[in-house]
Automatic annotation (TrEMBL):
Membership in a protein family: Belongs to the adenylate kinase family.
PANTHER family per record: NUCLEOTIDE KINASE
Name of the protein in question: CMPK1 protein
Gene3D superfamilies reported for this sequence: P-loop containing nucleotide triphosphate hydrolases (3.40.50.300)
Listed PROSITE patterns: ADENYLATE_KINASE
Keywords: Kinase, Nucleotide-binding, Transferase
């Protein structure tokens, strides 16, 4: 972001932070250099997520687009990310779709 002139632009950070540790790292590295204005969370059932990722796996070439890996990622998400999302990050704005 810095390389591309973050002072002049707006950036979408996809899938980050995933945990409070990630957020702490962001704060240590980025600090006040960039303002997080909004967090967006897409909420859908695990069955829908799994079906969509399995469909993507037919053409993505990703070895981790399989049912076992998807379920593991969803467990990790529940353990690490849900609490962060529920904390109201960031204070300036949050949306759920």
């Amino acid at each position: 972001m810095e390389k591309h002139g973050w002072a002049q632009g707006k950036f979408l950070i996809d899938g980050f932070p995933r945990s409070f540790d990630n957020m702490d790292g962001w704060d240590k590295v980025i600090g006040d250099s960039a303002e997080v204005q909004f967090a967006l969370f897409f909420d859908c059932s695990e069955a829908v997520m799994e079906a969509r990722i399995l469909e993507r796996g037919k053409t993505s070439g990703r070895a981790d687009d399989n049912a076992e890996a998807i379920r593991k990622r969803l467990r990790t998400f529940k353990q690490d990310s849900v609490e962060l999302i529920a904390s109201g990050l960031p204070e300036s704005g949050q949306g759920e779709v």
